[in-house]
Structure formats: C-alpha cells, structure tokens
Amino acid sequence: MTAGNQQRRAPPIRIGLMLRSLDERGGIGVYTRYLTQELLARDRRNHYCLFYRSPSNLGRFSDRDNVTERVVRAPNVFLWDQAAIPYACWREKVDIVFHPKFTVPLLAPAKTGMVLHGADWLIPEQARFYPALNVAFMRLLLPIYCRRATVLVSVSKLTTQNLHRALSLPPDKVHTVYFGPARHFRRVKDAARVRQVKERYDLPERFILTLSKPGGDGRKNMGTIFEAYRRYHGKTPHKLVVGGRDCEAFRESYGLPFDGYGGDVTFPGWIDQEDLPAVYTLADLFLYPSNLEAFPIPVTEAMACGTPIVTSDANGLREIAGDAALLVDPADAEAICRGIGRVLSEPGLRERLVARGLARSKRFSWDRCARETLDILESLAR
Fold first, then answer.
1. Domain 3-179+365-381 is in which class?
2. In whole angstroms, what is the distance from residue 36 CA to residue 16 CA?
3. Across-strand partners of 52?
4. Which of 56, 101, 189, 269 is buried most, with the most CB atoms less than 10 Å from its CB?
5. CB contact at 8 A, 232 and 337
6. What would the pLDDT profile of 221-234 be if each residue is shown by its tens digit?
7. Which pLDDT belongs to residue 274?
8. SS3 of 312, please?
9. Among 134, 128, 129, 174, which Cα is nearest to 151's?
C-alpha cells in the first residue's frame, strides 16, 4: 500500500479550533477568519469543533455537516484558554486542538498546535519596539506554550529562525506556512466601484497610501514616514493617506501642522476589507517602511492589487516583498523620500514593480495556507 493510499484510508480526525480571536479587527482576526473559512471549504472529511467565546458567532458555519459549534464561557481570556478549553476538548473528544493565536491549553487532553505571528519579544534587538511589560509577559509564557505544543506553525522564515535562535526546540516542530490576502484582493476594474469607494473615504485625486494603527511602540515607523513625506511634499501633487482606526490621533502625537505638508496628510479612518482593493487601486504608491514585521499582510495585498511598493530592507518585509518592491532603510527619512520620488517619477521602475508584484503575489494564498496547515494537523494524527 502506498503512502497516498494510507493517507486516503486513514480515519477522519476531530479538530478543535480555538476561535476567540474570530471577531478581532486586526491582523490576527483576519488570519483566524480566513484560515477557518478555507479549512472548512476544502476539508469535508474531518470533523471540526469550533470553540467560540462570543455567542454571536453561533450558526456561522451551521451549513457544514462536519462542523460542531460550541460557545465556551469563561470570565477572562486566561481561564478560557487554560480551563474552559481543556474541558471542552475532553467533552468533544477532539484529537487535536489548534489555536490561530499565541497560546495553547496546557492541560488539553489532545495534541496541541498554535500559530506564531512573530517571536520578536524573544530577540533583544527586535524586542525594543515593544513595551517592557509586554516583553516580560511574553518571555515568561511564550517559551512554556512553545515547549508544550505538539506543533508550531510560523508565519515567516524570520519567525522560525527567531524561535530556533531563542529556544531549544526540535528542528521538525516548527513549520513555516505563509498566508496571503483574501481572494477579493486584486486590481478593481469597475470604475463605478472605485469612484464609490473614493467618495466614501473622501480620498484625494493623487495619493500615497500607508496603513497603520495608533500606539507608541514605533514598529510602524510613522515619525520617519511623516518626515520623509515632509521632505518630498510639493514635488508632485500627491497627498499622504494614512488608513487605520483612530489614526487621526497621529496629527497631535506627531505634531503635524494643519497647513503645508501636514495639510496634505489625510486620515480616512478604518478601511473595510471589502473596500481596501479599490483603495489600493486608487493609490499611486503603497508606502510601508515599517521597523519590524514578521509577515506584512498589507504588502501582499498591495502586490495582488498591482500597486507599486516602497518598503523596508529589513526582517519580514524584505522576506515577503523580495524584488517586487523598492527596498529602503527604514531609519533613513531621506532614503524613503528618494524611494517615493523614484517610484512616482520613473515609469519604467513603476511598471517593473507592478509586474513583479503581481507575479510574486501568487506565492501567498489562503488556499495554500489551509492546505499546508491541514497537512500538518493530519500528520499529527497519523
């Protein structure tokens, strides 16, 4: 009997998914939603027990005959992970419990797996971008979770290298699995749709796009981005659009003036996932010179939408962008300014970046992520 026949005849398994991050609006929430959707779309054979924290999610996947949905109640996140989930796993008799976030239930009566969206807290030169209390907390608990887990899924080679650098883990315990933008991320050709989104967010005619979130840890490098734009301002009519929830607070925290270059910085607020492809389509440049990213999902989104990119020649940004973006030193505002100028003034460079980005974006997909993740989970059962 071949290995393929053995795999086809292996009995189905019961997979528990810890979905307390299903409703989060940030990157991990997006990851949790799309991975769950793709796993259930491609796998009709194994049985899935979906453990929700919010009752509002009940019925979300009720049309699947291989899905059981359960609300797991606990007064806080720690007790949900470490007390309520182990009991739910015992009650549902799951073979594997998998968490798309940073923890595993230490007392689960099943094999366990979790997704590492970074391991920056364990590396001194990267940990400096996080609050000290956050670093201390993660350095205490993350090694415990990593050693207890049966398997770890890392979102980038950088994260995998950091884990092996900081912890003594078996070499075959960590698997690098890329994900990617949702299927609807592509260049929008419907002019009416593009115009509708432009009006909804009151976007300027010509603009440079960046995405961020408020916070003082410096990872998004907004101070240097604003300084680079100040130096570039006036060379072309492009305004700077900073998308993200509550990002208008940047005007005060970074002392942006209401006239001059500061007057040409706009904050449309949170941009819905359904509208982002049209925003990328409208943008003449996606500017993302972050200081630190394990897997920069906006870079893959911009590539898939055919938007030229200026990003950092560092860590996960260089790994994911490759030759499909203009790479700059994130600490050098003048280098970022020159990068902006080159992409907006050199048609040949712009065309090359767009073509390379569209080609490279095919490496990053949720279908591939779900397929490789499912292979890992089934291999544990075998």
1. alpha beta
2. 11
3. 71
4. 101
5. yes
6. 999 999 999 999 99
7. 94
8. strand
9. 174
Which parts of the chain sit beneath pLDDT 50? 1-3, 6-7
* DSSP 3-state percent helix, strand, coil across the chain (nearest 5): 45, 15, 40
What are the sequence ranges of the domains in the chain? 3-179+365-381, 191-363
Q: Cβ(16)–Cβ(81) under 8 Å?
A: no
Classify the C-alpha dihedral 90-76-19-105 as positive or negative: negative
Residue 333 makes CB contacts below 8 A (sequence gap 6+) with 224, 227, 228, 231
Nearest to 370 by CA among 34, 121, 48, 91: 34
Total-model pTM:
0.86
Burial class (CB in 10 A: 0-12, 13-18, 19+), 165: exposed
CA dihedral 66, 71, 77, 83 (to 10 degrees): -80
Residue 95 CB neighbours (<10 A):
19
State residue 3's pLDDT score.
47
CA-based nearest residue to 211, from 181, 234, 232, 177: 181
Superfamily of domain 191-363: Glycogen Phosphorylase B; (3.40.50.2000)
Alpha-carbon distance of 114 to 276, in angstroms, equals: 28
- Which two three-digit tokens encode residue 17? 């998914």
The answer to whether domain 3-179+365-381 and domain 191-363 are alike in fold is yes
